[in-house]
């Protein structure tokens, strides 16, 4: 109520013919609503839609145009593919197969789950991936717990006599504990946290992996339309090494924190060193995979579309060779959204039943149930609706509207002028400060909201300091995903926390290390292979043109 009265009174004091002040007020009000979450994030994103026209910053039609951009269509096409993947259980088959390859040794089991989570999170949302993988991990953990008491002595026989630290880890928990031994509890903590961290890491790899990547891509392309440097291929080339390094370092950190330093014992692939519990866990995973049955026709079609979409994204404008868009006479008309929407649309047309065959197996693997419609498509509109994050779409649109208002009113230029005292800092120091700031704020605020507020400020700062905007914007975009220290940091954290294996203290301790690893790896990337990839040593012409236009 207090916030409402403040909002009602403040415009009277700010209703002056200064465009910058009006735009700043709208920005502050929206940011307060986003950070406090007094209203849903999507509802708060609608604030610019009515305040900008009321204050004369933008026309209502101009604001409305900002809420549906190219990235909205890109997201819709990706969600169509994700709906097909989840409907036909292709994600579950991939996850179980990768875990079967890794084995049931604690260290390798954690690494196997992390690898499959990273891969799935590249294409599905971080939340959906975590919600899908955690039940599989929980089934394995419950199998481990149920056989823990009978296998405690057998476990101790596989450990060397000199390794007293591991033996002490096998001492039993209290009688009211749900875990047979302290070591079992540590394995549950390690595996649970590894999944939420892996989902975050996987979301960094593709431009569609998380909503913050989409927000950056659209705001950057809107602010610098002549840049033509951010696409699926360039982002993947830059972020994939980051994800691999983060994946390995995060696994080592979690292993050290919860399983100790005995990598030989927990990561051995030798069958002779496997305990009965580990063999039962492998059998449980294998049984779950067998329940899926042989690969079905819809799974094959979904897999083909998945590969085709990826290839078309990579080959559209690879940079080092002409892409398939060069085959068309008119240039600049086709984007990654064109590919995703086309393939997503086809999923509504292609029947899920193989031509000239019986009805396909149902997603649950029960061949007794049949689809009454022989021409039922791969996905339905209901399948699409169940996954489509409309709140994120409106939230992203609100960010675009705020950016457009800052540009038209001149607020971004004014902010840049206030930051001129920082001109003495080297570029790497500016980037590091930006990374640390956004990674701290995003622990308590929504990732998309945090990035939406910071992107215009960092853009103006880069232009003022004559730094390539990508030098600060890309690291900030990645670091805003590192809100992994608290359950409220992001939805995957909350999902993992709800299973009850970890406490907040565990998340803070493990998350701080992951956060630090992420910032350091991103800084390493932007200072090494990011330099030639994005030509970061020079202040580019497209940024100069934007700076001159903004000044005018």
Automatic annotation (TrEMBL):
Spans traversing the lipid bilayer: 12-35, 41-58, 70-88, 108-125, 191-216, 236-263, 289-313, 333-352, 392-416, 428-458, 510-536
Region of interest (Disordered), ranges: 152-178
Chief place where the protein resides: membrane
Listed GO MF terms: solute:sodium symporter activity
Subcellular location: Membrane
Cited PANTHER family: SOLUTE CARRIER FAMILY 13 MEMBER, SOLUTE CARRIER FAMILY 13 MEMBER 4
The name this protein goes by in its record: Solute carrier family 13 member 4
The encoding gene: SLC13A4
């Amino acid at each position: 109520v207090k916030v409402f009265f403040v909002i009602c009174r403040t415009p009277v004091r700010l209703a002056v013919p200064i465009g910058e002040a009006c735009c700043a007020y709208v920005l502050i009000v929206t940011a307060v609503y986003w950070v406090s979450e007094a209203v849903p994030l999507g509802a708060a994103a609608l604030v610019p839609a009515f305040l900008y026209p009321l204050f004369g910053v933008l026309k209502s039609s101009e604001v409305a145009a900002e809420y549906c951009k190219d990235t909205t269509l890109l997201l819709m096409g990706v969600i169509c593919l994700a709906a097909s993947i989840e409907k036909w259980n292709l994600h579950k088959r991939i996850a179980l197969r990768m875990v079967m390859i890794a084995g049931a040794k604690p260290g390798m089991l954690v690494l196997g789950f992390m690898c499959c989570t990273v891969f799935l999170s590249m294409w599905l949302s971080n939340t959906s991936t975590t919600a899908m993988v955690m039940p599989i991990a929980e089934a394995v953990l419950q199998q481990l717990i149920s056989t823990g008491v009978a296998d405690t002595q057998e476990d101790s026989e596989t450990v060397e006599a000199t390794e007293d630290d591991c033996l002490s880890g096998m001492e039993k928990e209290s009688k009211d504990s749900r875990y047979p031994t302290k070591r079992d509890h540590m394995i549950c903590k390690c595996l649970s946290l590894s999944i939420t961290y892996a989902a975050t890491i996987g979301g960094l790899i593709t431009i569609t992996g998380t909503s913050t990547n989409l927000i950056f891509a659209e705001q950057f392309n809107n602010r610098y339309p002549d840049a033509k440097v951010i696409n699926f291929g360039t982002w993947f080339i830059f972020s994939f090494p980051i994800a691999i390094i983060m994946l390995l370092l995060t696994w080592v950190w979690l292993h050290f924190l919860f399983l100790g330093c005995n990598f030989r014992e927990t990561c051995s692939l030798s069958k002779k060193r496997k305990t009965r519990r580990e063999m039962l866990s492998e059998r449980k995973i294998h049984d779950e995979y067998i329940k899926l049955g042989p690969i079905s026709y819809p799974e094959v079609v979904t897999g083909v579309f998945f590969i085709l979409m990826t290839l078309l994204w990579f080959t559209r404008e690879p940079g080092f060779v002409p892409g398939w868009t060069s085959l068309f006479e008119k240039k600049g008309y086709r984007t990654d959204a064109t590919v995703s929407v086309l393939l997503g649309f086809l999923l509504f047309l292609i029947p899920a039943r193989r031509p000239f065959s019986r009805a396909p197996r149902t997603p649950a693997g029960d061949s007794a149930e049949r689809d009454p419609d022989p021409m039922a498509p791969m996905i339905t509109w209901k399948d699409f609706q169940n996954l489509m994050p409309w709140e994120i779409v409106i939230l992203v649109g609100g960010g675009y509207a705020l950016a457009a208002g800052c540009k038209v009113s001149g607020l971004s230029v004014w902010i840049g002028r206030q930051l001129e005292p920082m001109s003495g800092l080297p570029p790497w120091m500016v980037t590091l400060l930006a990374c640390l700031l956004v990674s701290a704020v995003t622990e308590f605020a929504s990732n998309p909201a945090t990035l939406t507020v910071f992107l215009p400020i960092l853009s103006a700062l880069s232009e003022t300091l004559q730094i390539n905007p990508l030098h600060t914007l890309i690291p900030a975009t990645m670091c805003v995903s590192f809100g992994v220290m608290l359950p409220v940091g992001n939805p995957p954290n909350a999902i993992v926390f709800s299973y009850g294996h970890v406490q907040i203290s565990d998340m803070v301790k493990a998350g701080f290390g992951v956060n630090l690893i992420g910032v350091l790896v991103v800084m390493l990337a932007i200072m090494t292979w990011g330099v030639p990839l994005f030509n970061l040593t020079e202040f580019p012409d497209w940024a100069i043109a934007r700076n001159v236009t903004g000044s005018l």
